[in-house]
Specification:
single chain; alpha+beta; seven-stranded antiparallel β-sheet; two-stranded antiparallel ribbon; 9 strands
Length: about 260
């Protein structure tokens, strides 16, 4: 298999050779007749040096960005992964205005996810096991409004969730949405358990990896019963742009016996 980084580095080297060839000055015959134009040379070379510096800086920056995007993300549990998670948590705590706004709102209660499950159980779940760490779902926090039966989750979507480079896989987004719809539905059921019966998604705008997004989920209280729950969900970026919208139906099975999820998220 051809290594993509090698291809890009080769392309950059070729580009560098062509650039040096482009900027190589032409050989001229020096004569007294050319003396009147000599005063223009310093200005012309100054411009060339400025252009070369600008393009060189851009090239180095682009190369570092590409190296970062192509390099494999850190594996969960490694020192690099732990450092990445610390930076993600720090950005969540002090860098996101919506977090500060929700924390000031007394109607919302901040909760961690998967508090109903033990550590051993978490490793066997998709989102808390294989998709854990900074490369996957690097952070998930839930803000629950019990009055309105509404929750807002803040999630960090890492590079390991990509389908195309820099773009989060639609299936990963569907998984995140399914879990958030389920959280609203299960809290509505007296049995505190349930399964997905129907899930419909519409993708409205690209979702980019290595970014925070908000997941807004609301229970349809008028249509929901003790055994059926209808809910809708939206994924939005930090500017508030709608990226994905979805609806879901959750039910409590009549014949399948399920364990009680619990009172947490």
């Amino acid at each position: 298999m051809i290594h993509y980084r090698s291809i890009l580095q080769s392309a950059f080297r070729q580009s560098s050779i062509q650039t040096r060839s482009f900027w190589r000055p032409a050989v001229r015959n020096i004569s007294t007749a050319a003396q009147p134009n000599a005063s223009r040379e310093p200005s012309r070379w100054t411009r060339r040096l400025i252009y070369a510096s600008i393009f060189g800086t851009i090239g180095v920056g682009a190369g570092k960005w590409l190296d970062n995007k192509i390099a494999a993300p850190p594996a969960p549990g490694t020192l690099e992964d732990k450092m990445e998670l610390q930076e993600i948590q720090r950005a969540f705590d002090i860098g996101l205005p919506i977090v500060q706004e929700l924390r000031r709102n007394p109607d919302y209660v901040e909760k961690d996810v998967y508090e109903n499950f033990g550590e051993k159980h978490k490793t066997h779940r998709l989102t808390s096991g294989p998709l854990a760490g900074s490369r996957g779902l690097g952070l998930q926090k839930v803000f629950w409004n019990d009055k309105e039966k509404k929750l807002i989750s803040v999630v960090f979507l890492g590079p390991g969730l990509e389908g195309w480079p820099t773009l989060v896989h639609g299936g990963a987004l569907g998984t995140v949405i399914d879990e958030n719809l389920g959280r609203a539905a299960i809290r509505h059921f007296p049995s505190r358990t349930g399964v997905t019966a129907n899930l419909e998604l519409n993708y409205r705008a690209p979702v980019y990896s290595d970014n925070f997004y908000t997941v807004h989920t609301t229970l349809d209280q008028e249509r929901s019963t003790d055994t059926k729950a209808y809910a809708n969900c939206e994924i939005r970026d930090m500017a508030g742009q709608l990226c994905v919208e979805a609806t879901g139906l959750f039910v409590v099975p009549k014949t399948l016996k399920l364990g009680k999820v619990g009172e947490y998220f």
